[in-house]
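TASK: fixed-backbone design
INPUT:
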């Protein structure tokens, strides 16, 4: 499958949204959240403080009568400056988000968007990392690809086995809180991955400018499935 065909293939899978949250939540209740460096409102918010970032996000959702905040694909963010995990040196600073975040309360159930098997899972415990993470493998026709679910609850990893089948629409995980999810307000990091490059239970969800072209190709916009 050529890289040019992969986004088109994702769009062709279904004319309808393939949700990872409760399908009963109307699209009108999904509210865009801008956490980019261009958002001047964030200059007055200490985004390194979980409670302050949570208040900002929740206020944005409430002001628009929403239930879920979403966004973040190919978004340059300052939030990662708080963690050495993303900033080992100035030349490779990772601050460009290459998944979609869905901001909603802890313990919210996560649904499988397509028939899948469990590829791998891991608790990624670095400060600012994913925390509990599950990666699913999908095969449709001759195309194989993966979806990653980060910032889950510890309970999501219990009794999980590699190769386990999960059906479309089946619940398979729930969201964690800041004590286990890498120290963030509760949310799901959802990412589509063409080639796992040998990784298991983890895959880079934030990249640097130097590698951006590769990661945008290998991890196309999850909105092609979610259809916001």
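OUTPUT:
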């Amino acid at each position: 499958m050529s890289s040019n065909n992969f986004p088109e293939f994702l769009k062709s899978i279904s004319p309808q949204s393939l949700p990872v949250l409760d399908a009963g939540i109307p699209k009108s209740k999904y509210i865009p959240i801008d956490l980019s460096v261009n958002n001047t409102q964030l200059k007055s918010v200490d985004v390194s403080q979980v409670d302050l970032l949570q208040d900002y996000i929740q206020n944005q959702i409430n002001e628009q009568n929403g239930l879920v905040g979403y966004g973040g694909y190919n978004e340059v963010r300052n939030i990662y400056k708080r963690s050495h995990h993303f900033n080992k040196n100035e030349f490779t600073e990772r601050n460009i988000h290459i998944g979609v975040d869905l901001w909603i309360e802890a313990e919210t159930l996560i649904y499988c968007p397509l028939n899948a098997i469990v590829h791998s899972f891991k608790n990624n415990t670095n400060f600012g990392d994913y925390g509990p993470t599950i990666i699913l493998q999908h095969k449709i026709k001759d195309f194989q690809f993966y979806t990653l679910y980060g910032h889950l609850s510890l309970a999501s990893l219990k009794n999980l086995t590699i190769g386990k089948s999960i059906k479309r629409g089946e619940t398979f995980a729930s969201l964690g809180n800041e004590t286990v999810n890498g120290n963030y307000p509760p949310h799901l990091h959802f990412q589509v991955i063409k080639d796992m490059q040998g990784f298991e239970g983890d895959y880079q969800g934030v990249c640097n400018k130097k590698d951006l072209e590769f990661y945008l190709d290998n991890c196309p916009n999850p909105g092609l499935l979610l259809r916001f």
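COMMENT: The CA atoms of residues 183 and 210 lie 27 Å apart.
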